[in-house]
Amino acid sequence: AALEASRALESAAGTSLYNPELEADYESAVDKTWLVGIGQTIDWSGKRKARASVALSDRNAVEAEYLAVKRDLAVDLLSGLTQFQIATQRDALAAERNRAMREFAELAQRRFEAGDLNQVEADLATLAFVDAQIKRATAASGLAEAKQDVRNLTLLSTTDQWPSLDTDLPSISSTSDPQKAVLGLPEIVAAQRRVDAANALVELREREQRPDPTLSLRGGREDDSTLVGVNLSIPLYIRNSFRFETAAAVAEQDRAQQIADDLIRRAYVRFISASERYRLSREAWQAWDQTGQISLQRQGDLLQRMWEAGELSTTEYLVQLRQTLDTRDSALDLELTMWRAWLEWLAASGQVENWLGRGASS
Fold first, then answer.
1. Cα–Cα distance measured from residue 102 to residue 306, given in angstroms and rounded to the nearest whole number
2. Coil, strand or helix: which one is 126?
3. Nearest to 83 by CA among 152, 155, 157, 137
């Protein structure tokens, strides 16, 4: 809607600044006199051209802002989908923890009744099961929040319609030009177009200090005589020269330039920071995916066999089992960190739509 409004304003700015004026005069005295005339104020100083330049820059800025809104919407949706995907895995892990601790508590109770465990160890197993139930409820709440974040943007969709995102994310080139990427960002383009609009506004205000003449042609009759007249009027900018409007436009020009310069600096730093965070988190995730995940699965199976065989005490088994589950939970935090860094880099480099076109899988 803002874009459509800016286009309409651009069209309005390109039309003539002054409309013609029609005048009529009739006088009945000793002689009857009537006159008809038409007048036109002439845009002698080029105000129309200056107005069109301001409107064009404004429309270009709004177009860039529109692209920025589209990008931010895409990033918000991708962020919601990644959080939903991680929350689903975390909920499944919490369910697995809950099942394992319930089985452990039940087995510990039977061993306590058989005299193989003391009261402290049996209570410890019960407390571990209660803790697992709390974590399961927390994970379920987190999953519900993640669903809400996606539904805020896609109200009529269902979870089975939401695409899954592949964690095999690409690497980013260290030779990419940050300056080129930053200058192409829509918010930077919008800020630069605002500078253009401010420059054009200064030109307009300067031209508004120059008066435009009005030329009128009149014709009529006075009894049997034909009357023809020409009138030229020029306003005198004596009481108000409009210089303060020009001074304000110059100040706004300086403000727009400083805002643009600040946005460029911040966008450059954001690009560098996002690149560093993504490389670090991706390397850590690849290390976990290739070695840590397999080792952890083997350890979980081995721990249960050792405890059932009496090679581990209940306390030692519980501590190591919790550590195993907590490590898997930390891996989900790492995956979420990697996704956030990736989405931040996509936004900072202006590559969101490119990646959506070839990188996301459903």
1. 18
2. helix
3. 152
> Rounded to whole angstroms, how far apart are CA atoms 6 and 37?
37
Cα dihedral 87, 88, 94, 97 sign: negative
Residue closest to 350 by CA, chosen among 154, 135, 189, 161: 189
Amino acid in position 57: S
Q: By three-state DSSP, how is residue 239 classified?
A: coil
Residue found by looking up tokens 């066999």 in the block: 305
Collect all residues with Cβ–Cβ distance below 8 Å to 257 and sequence separation of at least 6.
195, 198
Tens-binned pLDDT, residue by residue, of the chain (362 aa): 999 999 999 999 999 989 999 999 988 877 888 899 999 999 998 999 999 999 999 999 999 999 999 999 999 999 999 999 999 999 999 998 898 888 888 888 887 888 877 888 788 888 988 999 999 999 999 999 999 999 999 888 888 899 888 888 888 876 567 888 899 999 999 999 999 999 999 999 999 999 999 999 999 988 888 889 999 999 998 888 889 999 999 999 999 999 999 999 999 999 999 999 999 999 998 888 777 655 656 666 677 677 667 777 777 877 888 888 888 888 899 999 999 999 999 999 999 988 888 654 43
Q: What pTM was computed for the model?
A: 0.81
